[in-house]
């Protein structure tokens, strides 16, 4: 039997705002698995805590409850909710990729360097890293004249392609995708879907939030419907 | 990854100190000034680890004790209690158990410091090149030609015009003074560098170029750094982990993106919410 790469059991996340003495619930009691070479899609209405599941796995958020069992490349299982900060940083560098909704990158850095960065961090030589970055950017139809400038002035769709290219380039074992095709035109979306299918074929386990039902239909091997947190009504009314 | 520095329970009190100092100060007491004896609890019970090649941020407002931490580690000040172990090439040094000569040796060879105030890091009576030569001399380099060549290479690397090698630091702009300080700190290729509010008070464009330089150097040399700053932008740009200080205590520590996106402590939430 092949063991899943990721098993999330009873994940919950809420935020406590000290200033207003308020509890803001986000994800509630979420459980699912993600297998190698397969894509699990998280679905549900806005505010149901889809992104917060991804951020909890990446540890940009501290999970409030639940277990996030990850099986690493060596076959060891560990709970990402409890892993040390250094362990998380190492996994981010070597195994777990995250394409967030918005491109966060160092300012004043050329697009080619932004995309090549995950490879450079793994010790790949600059020239080879740049070649692979260029290959990915041209596959995504990002005009070559943009490669040497910073993405700061790019359109939403251009930034999203840079973000995706950076997330895909190192071929992570586990890839987290947060609406990666939201601002792409249909033709570019098709290209991106092709690239994601390619990663799946190479064995990457993918957990994704997609905007379009059509994308889910084409890519998802499993669909997990998130339920809104039960306590969401009261505190939100209290804020209003 | 290897640990390069282990800091445990570091404390520093200015003043006579009394048995009530610790319970009467800190974030809950909302002060670092002991109301009973008038002592200032600059830092108390500060602990953290630093790994080789890692950049750790120390954030907090003025008076939170963040600069005191690095000044103690660089031997500018002595702690009241606590310990720090520096791991270097199969050796380990218990920093506060060393004698003055051993501490000076580490400062000159294995540590580097860049201060907010260039007057602390540079000798203003000698030239930019002379400042770097001074550090190379105390690290044991004796040949004039070699020293001169190294000094020039370092200044070129930190983008100081070579035509100004023989100028006095007082004739330099603030940004240039910081570049000379960085060149001086890097002269002995230390594995550990302390940066204390290095961009505070500089023009935004100058800040950006200094930060770019620090990033490039970090990527090239994989120097471990402790970056002290109140600027969340600097924390986000340079560090992978951070600790947050308030009234001398560490109130929160974590991955930098987690601290900025999901701050846990009331004060950190306030700090992040008030960032521009």
Provide a quick synopsis of the model:
With 240 residues, chain A is of the alpha/beta class. Chain A has eight helices and eleven strands. The longest helix of chain A is centred in the last third of the chain and has 16 residues.
Please, could you describe this protein's structure?
The complex is a heterodimer of chains A (240) and B (276). Chain A has helices spanning 50-58, 85-94, 111-121, 126-139, 156-169, 186-201, 213-219, 233-239, and strands spanning 6-12, 14-17, 22-25, 30-34, 39-43, 65-71, 77-79, 96-99, 174-178, 205-209, 222-225. Chain A has 240 residues and is of the alpha/beta class. Chain A folds into 2 domains: 1-95 and 173-240, Rossmann fold; 104-171. In chain A, strand 6 and strand 7 form a beta hairpin. In chain A, helix 3 (111-121) crosses helix 4, helix 3 runs parallel beside helix 5 (156-169) and helix 4 (126-139) packs across helix 5. The radius of gyration of chain A is 18 Å and the shape is globular. Mean pLDDT of chain A is 92; it is low at 235-240. With 276 residues, chain B is of the alpha/beta class. Chain B has one domain (52-80, 98-273): P-loop containing nucleotide triphosphate hydrolases (Rossmann fold), CATH 3.40.50. Chain B has helices at residues 66-73, 100-109, 118-121, 128-138, 144-157, 174-186, 204-221, 232-238, 256-261, 266-273, and strands spanning 3-14, 40-51, 55-59, 81-88, 91-94, 111-114, 192-196, 224-229, 241-246, 249-255. Chain B has a 6-stranded mixed beta sheet, sandwiched between helices. A 4-stranded antiparallel beta sheet of chain B has the order 2-1-4-5, with helices on one face. The longest helix of chain B is centred in the last third of the chain and has 18 residues, at 204-221.
């Amino acid at each position: 039997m092949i063991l899943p790469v990721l098993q999330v059991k009873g994940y919950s996340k809420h935020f406590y705002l000290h200033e207003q003495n308020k509890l803001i619930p986000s994800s509630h009691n979420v459980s699912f698995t993600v297998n190698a070479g397969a894509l699990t899609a998280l679905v549900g209405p806005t505010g149901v805590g889809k992104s917060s599941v991804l951020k909890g796995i990446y540890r940009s958020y501290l999970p409030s409850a639940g277990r996030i069992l990850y099986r690493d490349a060596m076959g060891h299982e560990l709970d990402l909710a409890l892993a040390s900060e250094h362990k998380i940083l190492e996994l981010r560098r070597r195994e777990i990729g995250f394409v967030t909704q918005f491109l966060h990158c160092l300012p004043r850095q050329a697009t080619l360097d932004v995309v090549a960065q995950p490879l450079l961090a793994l010790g790949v030589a600059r020239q080879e890293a740049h070649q692979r970055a260029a290959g990915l950017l041209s596959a995504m139809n990002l005009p070559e004249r943009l490669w040497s400038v910073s993405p700061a002035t790019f359109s939403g769709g251009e930034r999203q392609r840079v973000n995706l290219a950076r997330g895909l380039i190192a071929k992570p074992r586990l890839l987290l995708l947060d609406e990666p095709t939201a601002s792409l035109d249909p033709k570019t979306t098709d290209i991106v879907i092709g690239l994601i299918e390619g990663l799946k074929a190479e064995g990457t386990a993918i957990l994704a939030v997609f905007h379009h039902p059509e994308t889910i239909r084409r890519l998802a091997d499993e669909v997990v419907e998130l339920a809104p947190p039960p306590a969401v009504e009261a505190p939100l009314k209290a804020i209003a | 990854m290897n640990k390069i520095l282990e800091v445990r329970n570091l404390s520093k009190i200015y003043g006579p100190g009394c048995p009530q100092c610790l319970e009467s100060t800190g974030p809950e007491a909302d002060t670092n000034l002991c109301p009973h004896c008038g002592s200032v609890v600059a830092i108390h019970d500060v602990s953290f680890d630093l790994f080789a090649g890692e950049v750790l941020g120390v954030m907090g407002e003025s008076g939170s004790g963040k600069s005191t931490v690095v000044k103690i580690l660089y031997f500018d000040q002595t702690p009241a209690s606590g310990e720090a172990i520096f791991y270097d090439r199969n050796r380990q040094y218990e920093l506060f158990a060393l004698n003055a000569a051993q501490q000076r040796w580490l400062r000159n060879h294995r540590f580097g410091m860049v201060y907010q105030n260039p007057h602390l890091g540079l000798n203003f009576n000698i030239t930019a090149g002379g400042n770097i030569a001074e550090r190379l001399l105390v690290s044991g380099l004796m040949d004039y030609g070699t020293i001169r060549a190294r000094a020039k290479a370092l200044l070129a690397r930190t983008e100081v015009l070579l035509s100004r090698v023989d100028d006095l630091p007082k004739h330099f702009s603030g940004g240039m003074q910081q570049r000379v300080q960085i060149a001086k700190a890097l002269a002995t290729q230390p594995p550990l560098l302390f940066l204390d509010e290095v961009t505070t008070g500089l023009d935004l464009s100058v800040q950006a170029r200094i930060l770019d330089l620090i990033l490039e150097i970090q990527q090239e040399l994989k120097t471990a750094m402790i970056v002290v700053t109140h600027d969340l932008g600097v924390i986000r740009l340079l560090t992978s982990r951070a600790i947050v200080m308030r009234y001398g205590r560490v109130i929160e520590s974590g991955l930098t993106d987690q601290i900025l996106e999901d701050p846990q402590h009331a004060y950190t939430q306030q700090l992040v919410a008030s960032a521009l």
